[in-house]
């Protein structure tokens, strides 16, 4: 255990999040996503996991250490429901609440069509799978920066 580090964040996940640079993307998925196959095509080249927790709980842990990109560009995406792209399932509303808790309400998620999401995920830095069993618990985040401290 480490002080001030969410216990859901294991060493592999922490290493990947720290290794990412500004503008790199991170994919967080549910249990139905083809996570291993997609992860093998990412920059990291292997699947990471935050086991036995919901997508929202995993994202709460991730956002405790990962800055999202500036409001100048979309920094948080969600997989759209097939045939109903404007629908926002409960799992996605829970994740939006976690984003709002950390970033304020100025960072709404944008929708990504399912197959476009798969293609974007292949270009990501890494994929983290969760224990989320609900459909459409798949998200894409763009890492931002931490400004220097004044002084």
Number of strands: 6
Domain module count: 1
Q: Residue-averaged pLDDT, rounded?
A: 95
- State the strand order across the main sheet: 2-5-1-6-3-4
Report how far the terminal alpha carbons are from each other: 32 Å
Query: Any idea what the shape is?
Result: globular
Total number of helices = 5
What is the chain-wise order of helices and strands? HEHEHEHEHEE
Q: Segments where pLDDT lies below 50 for 5+ residues? A: none
Main β-sheet, in a few words? 6 strands, mixed
Under CATH at level 1, the class stands as Alpha Beta
SS class: alpha/beta
The helix content is: 25-40%
Protein name: L-fucose mutarotase
Keywords: Isomerase
Pfam families: RbsD_FucU
GO molecular function: D-ribose pyranase activity; fucose binding; L-fucose mutarotase activity
Structure description:
This protein has 151 residues and is an alpha/beta fold. The chain has a single domain (21-142), classed as RbsD-like fold (3-Layer(aba) Sandwich), CATH 3.40.1650.10. It is 30% helix and 17% strand. It has five helices and six strands; from the N terminus they run αβαβαβαβαββ. The chain has helices at residues 11-19, 35-39, 55-63, 90-103, 114-122; strands spanning 25-29, 47-50, 76-79, 110-112, 126-130, 139-142. The chain has a six-stranded mixed β-sheet. Strand 3 (76-79), helix 4 (90-103) and strand 4 (110-112) form a beta-alpha-beta unit. Helix 3 (55-63) packs parallel to helix 4 (90-103). The chain is globular. The N and C termini lie far apart (32 Å). The model has no long low-confidence stretch (mean pLDDT 95). This is L-fucose mutarotase. It comes from Phyllobacterium leguminum. Pfam families: RbsD_FucU.
């Amino acid at each position: 255990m480490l002080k001030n580090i969410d216990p859901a964040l294991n060493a592999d996940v922490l290493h990947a999040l720290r290794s990412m640079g500004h503008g790199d993307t991170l994919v967080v998925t549910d249990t139905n996503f083809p996570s291993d196959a997609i992860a093998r095509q990412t920059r990291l080249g292997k699947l990471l996991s935050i086991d036995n927790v919901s997508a929202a709980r995993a994202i709460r842990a991730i956002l405790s250490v990962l800055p999202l990109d500036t409001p100048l560009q979309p920094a948080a995406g969600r997989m759209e429901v097939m045939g109903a792209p404007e629908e926002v399932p409960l799992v996605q509303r829970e994740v939006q609440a976690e984003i709002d808790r950390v970033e304020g309400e100025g960072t709404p998620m944008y929708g990504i069509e399912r197959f476009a999401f798969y293609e974007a995920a292949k270009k990501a830095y890494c994929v983290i799978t969760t224990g989320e069993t609900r459909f459409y618990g798949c998200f894409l985040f763009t890492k931002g920066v931490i400004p220097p401290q004044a002084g």
